[in-house]
Design a protein that fits this description.
Strand order of the largest sheet: 2-1-3-4
CATH superfamily of one domain: Creatininase
CATH topology of one domain: Rossmann fold
Number of strands: 4
Bound molecules: nickel (II) ion
Structural class: alpha/beta
CATH architecture of one domain: 3-Layer(aba) Sandwich
Number of helices: 8
Largest sheet: 4 strands, parallel
Strand content: 5-15%
Order of helices and strands: HEHEHEHEHHHH
Shape: globular
Helix content: 40-55%
Length: 250
Amino acid sequence: MQLQLATWPEVEAYLARSSGIIVPIGSFEQHGPTGLIGTDAICAEVIAARAGAEADILVGPTFNVGVAQHHMAFPGSMTLRPATFVAVIRDWVNSLAQHGFEKIYFLNGHGGNIATLNSAFAELNADVSLGGHGINQQRVIPDCVQQSWWLLPGIYDLCKQLYPQGHGGHATPSEVAVTQFAYPDHIKHVPLEPETAPSGRFTHAAQYREKFPDGRIGSNPALATPEDGERLVAAAVKALIADFRHFLNS
Ligand code: NI
């Protein structure tokens, strides 16, 4: 069930049987000449929505602009500053906790969100520990975790099996394949030069564009197919349902 397509009585009924929710979280950033700007959010959203429908799990709205300052030299990218991101995550989590959601599982689609999302969880826990919220109040103390979809059990192995060469780190064929499966009318074909992009580290946006001129890092997304995307989504949905159930019982 998707929260945005539910009514409040349906949410109230869901809360009587579960206090868990999945929140897809992505980014809004360039993914090379063939990858969609929304790739990271789309991957998390598609996998979460299917898991939710299959296993009676409520899925919250997609947090679709993340920490992506390093992509800002490419048109269309948008970012939150880390401090803004932490503040907004706190408000999202506290809004859900207000209604009784105590197990909040962020399904992440962007490596650049991981550190800041953990900072947001640390702030939420500090709120409780320092007595700002939650203690001796009739309020749920939220328990939050994050999991990146490609790190779900078995998924990275499948990525490497599908793409033994040219997987890379950004605009990867696996994430592009998932978007091709989800949006087959938006598959882009553009020559990529070099075929496999350079690898390396980066700091700020101008330096990123200088080192990775077409936006990709270490990847050859021309290897992606919608059929691969279907396989990746099916495997990730299965792994997500198991991981979410494990979190509920932890
Ligand atoms: Ni990505």
